[in-house]
Amino acid sequence: MMIERVNAEIRKQVAVILNGGLKDPRIAAAMVNVTEASTTSDLRVAKIYISFIGDDEKENDEILALIGRAAPVIRNELKKNMLIRNVPELRFYKDSSSKYAAKISKTLHSLNIPADTSKKNDASTLGKTDADTAEITKSDDKNAGKNANKAGKNANKNADAQTDND
């Protein structure tokens, strides 16, 4: 529980520092977002994941390298702003999960699959016709009724056994 709070505070403080607390104008002008901070259990090392707003990969890599070189300065700022005994060593990584999610979303939208909310879309109906699906639904309803009857009978047996024991 304590590590999660430390992670959240480090993430928040690093975001504040990167978005205006450094003297390097290239870092201050960069559109960066601190997406995650993950510290080791002994709080010696913190991995800081950063996403970039711009699409220029070369520029983003250069900014990440600048941030990496500024890690000692950022760590000193954290020492001033946080109330923990030892501020962890900071290591910065590019977080490309949002770009990956956007790529997957774009690919899915390009498939032009119509949204059909009237059918049950699960693995049991995949590749089945409407008649097959109706038959599956009927058998599921029968099985549900049988299972409910069995459960009711078992509950009655347990209640009878309980009253016999009393």
Radius of gyration: 28 Å
CATH topology of the largest domain: GMP Synthetase, Chain A, domain 3
Q: What is the overall shape? A: globular
Strand order within the widest beta sheet? 1-2-3
Number of DSSP helical runs: 6
The separation of the N and C termini measures: 47 Å
CATH superfamily of the largest domain: K homology (KH) domain
Biggest sheet layout: 3 strands, mixed
Beta fraction of the residues? 5-15%
The CATH C-level class name of the largest domain: Alpha Beta
Supply the CATH architecture of the largest domain. 2-Layer Sandwich
The helix content is 55-70%
Instruction: Tell me the number of structural domains.
Output: 2
Q: Average pLDDT value?
A: 77
- SSE run: HHEEHHEHH
Uncertain segments:
none
DSSP, total strands: 3
Structural class: alpha+beta
Give your account of this protein's structure.
With 166 residues, this protein is of the alpha+beta class. The chain folds into two domains: 2-98, K homology (KH) domain (GMP Synthetase, Chain A, domain 3, 2-Layer Sandwich); 123-165. The protein has helices at 2-21, 25-29, 57-69, 71-81, 97-110, 130-165, and strands at 32-39, 45-52, 89-94. Strands 1-2-3 form a three-stranded mixed beta sheet. It is globular, with a radius of gyration of 28 Å. 13% of the residues are buried. The mean pLDDT is 77.
Give a topology summary:
Elements: H1 2-21, H2 25-29, E1 32-39, E2 45-52, H3 57-69, H4 71-81, E3 89-94, H5 97-110, H6 130-165
